[in-house]
Design goal:
Layout lengths: L5 E4 L6 E4 L9 H14 L1 E4 L6 H9 L3 E2 L3 H4 L10 E5 L24 E8 L8 E5 H6 L3 H7 L3 E5 H7 L12 E5 L1 E3 L6 E3 L6 E4 L4 H17 L4 E4 L5 E6 L3 E5 L8 E9 L6 E2 H4 L1
Parallel strand pairs: 2-3
Antiparallel strand pairs: 1-2, 3-14, 4-16, 5-16, 6-14, 6-16, 7-13, 7-15, 8-9, 8-12, 10-11, 10-17
Bound molecules: succinic acid.
Length: about 280
């Protein structure tokens, strides 16, 4: 069968730029299947020069799962279109969304499997890239003893920890999720182990003293952030859509454009039947 799309790797470890797909089209099954395969293999896909409406954005996301509603939209913290998470950074913003390494809303019992961010406005004077890191590799590159220890642990993912970074406190009646997940999770499709703790949401490893949990988590966060051989960096141009696999990828938005504006909209998708399962349990 001839392939309909072409792609070019961003780094050997993670990410591909994809050509030959117009996301405003209703895509045929062969293209969607090719994209699903490439997505599982490369984890981050970049589509440039796309002029899409919100509905087309949602339709494209819908090829990969059910549309996810962000917790901030479920508890009245935001009134706009429930399936669209706005990432709006005005020129005078104090912070932008996602500045700390994370996978999206890992505090959910079933976190979104993928996120699709469409950036329509990039900072005029450059900057505003996003870094992505490969969590299969983060696991693989640990020592055998540490792997064996972490495979037995669970960690608590606390949505309020993430909100506190932005100075947001919940008002009475508002709710934000939290969940326990295995530290080493089995990717439900590739059946491969991934490191599944992240600095934005994971507050502690359960059942150990806080100092011990902090020591382990701080070490793992340093491993993720500092190991460039397992990362790629996406430089956005206006009207680019990037999709990533939250089950095996973490990302960090680089806030190096203070004084300039950036605007994007993110749609995430979820498989409601796919609770994260520990790698050891899955064997
Ligand atoms: C996010 O989804 O966390 C934000 C990523 C970005 O704005 O580049």
């Amino acid at each position: 069968m001839t392939t309909k799309i072409s792609s070019k790797q961003i780094t050997p470890s993670i990410g591909s730029e994809v050509d030959g797909v117009d996301l405003s089209d209703d895509l045929d099954e062969q293209i969607v299947e090719e994209l699903r395969e490439l997505f599982l293999d490369r984890m981050v896909l970049v589509f440039r020069d796309q002029l899409i409406t919100r509905d087309q954005h949602k339709r494209f996301a819908g090829y990969f799962g059910d549309l996810h509603v962000h917790p901030s939209k479920r508890n009245g913290m935001s009134e706009t279109d429930p399936e669209v998470f706005i990432i709006d950074t005005p020129a005078d913003a104090k912070w932008s969304n996602g500045e700390t390494w994370h996978s999206d809303v890992s505090c959910e019992d079933i976190p979104p499997l993928a996120s699709l961010l469409y950036v329509s406005k990039v900072p005029e004077n450059g900057g505003g890239d996003t870094l992505f890191a490969n969590m299969y590799e983060a696991y693989r590159s640990l020592s055998d003893d540490l792997k064996a220890y972490l495979e037995k642990q669970t960690a608590f993912h606390d949505g309020e920890k993430d909100l506190r970074q932005y100075g947001i406190r919940l008002r009475e009646g508002q709710y934000y999720p939290s969940a326990s997940h295995p530290v080493i999770v089995c990717h439900p499709e590739t059946k491969t182990p991934v490191l599944f703790v992240n600095e934005s949401f994971t507050s502690h490893i359960e059942g150990v003293a806080p100092w011990e949990s902090n020591m382990i988590l701080d070490g793992l966060y340093h491993h993720i952030a500092s190991n460039q051989t397992m990362q790629c960096r996406v430089r956005w141009s206006a009207n680019t859509l990037v999709m990533w696999d939250n089950r095996c990828v973490q990302h960090q938005a680089i806030r190096d454009y203070v004084g300039y504006a950036r605007y994007g909209e993110r749609v995430s998708v979820v498989d409601e039947d796919s609770v994260p399962v520990g790698y050891m349990t899955s064997k």
